[in-house]
Amino acid sequence: MTNHPGGVDGLPEELVAKFDRELAEVLKRYPPDRKGSAMIPALRIGQRLFGHASPAVQALAADRLGTSPSRAEEVATFYVMLETHPTGRHLVEVCTNVSCSLSGADQLYAELRRRLGVEGGGTTADGRITLREVECLGSCGTAPAMLVDEEMHEQLTPQKVDRILGELK
Fold first, then answer.
1. Residue 131 and residue 140: Cα distance in Å, rounded?
2. 104: Cα separation from own chain's centroid
3. For strand 129-134 and strand 90-95, is the pairing parallel, antiparallel, or unpaired?
4. pLDDT tens digits, residue range 27-71?
5. Positive or negative, the Cα torsion across 64, 68, 69, 75?
6. Cα dist. 158→13, 75, 88 in Å?
7. Can you give the pTM of this predicted structure?
8. Number of neighbours of residue 124 by Cβ within 10 angstroms
9. Measured between alpha carbons, how far is 50 from 19 in angstroms, rounded to an integer?
10. By the 8 A CB rule, do 35 and 65 touch?
11. Secondary structure (DSSP) of the chain
């Protein structure tokens, strides 16, 4: 990693310092010779601090964990909870698996796409909401379900969805 006036590889210095502090706490739970195993937590810290797990964040995590940037990229692109591209301030993920679909998720998802003016995976023009369809949220008994900024919402109705979206700033 190279240090630039704006931080490490263009990342802001103060956030890199915060990343290092938070990662140090996580690494206390790993044997020193296995710190590369902390890639998911490292990338999640980076995503939270920098907005997404960009190539620069992946390189930072790899550097701090003593692994290759390609290893960080493999992890970042494999797990759906890691965003490698910028997203809106809020991430709305609607489950459209069988149980949710049978309970009306397809219609809710179509209505959300229409109302927000985006296709699946798209972000609203104001950068407020990224909408994504997901395979399963594990809430088959309380379908339909959606995840909003890692908070689960179940037994959705159009009215419930309106209320949830209205609370997003």
1. 20
2. 25
3. parallel
4. 999 999 999 999 999 999 999 999 899 999 999 999 999 999 999
5. negative
6. 44, 36, 22
7. 0.74
8. 16
9. 9
10. yes
11. --EETTEETTS-HHHHHHHHHHHHHHHTTS-GGGGGGGHHHHHHHHHHHHSS--HHHHHHHHHHHT--HHHHHHHHHH-TTS-SS---SEEEEEE-SHHHHHTTHHHHHHHHHHHHT--TT-B-TTS-EEEEEES--S-GGG-S-EEETTEEE-S--HHHHHHHHHT--
Query: How far is residue 150's CA from residue 50's CA, in Å, rounded to a whole number?
Result: 17
Measured between alpha carbons, how far is residue 96 from residues 57, 73, 93, 144 in Å?
31, 27, 9, 8
Residue 150: left if φ>0, alpha if ψ -120 to 50, beta else—which one?
A: left
pLDDT tens, position by position, 127-151: 999 999 998 999 999 999 999 988 9
pLDDT at 2 over 70: no
Write down all domains in the chain, each with its CATH number in brackets: 3-78 (1.10.10), 90-166 (3.40.30.10)
Token output for 3: 């240090």
24 Cβ contact partners less than 8 Å away, ≥ 6 residues apart: none
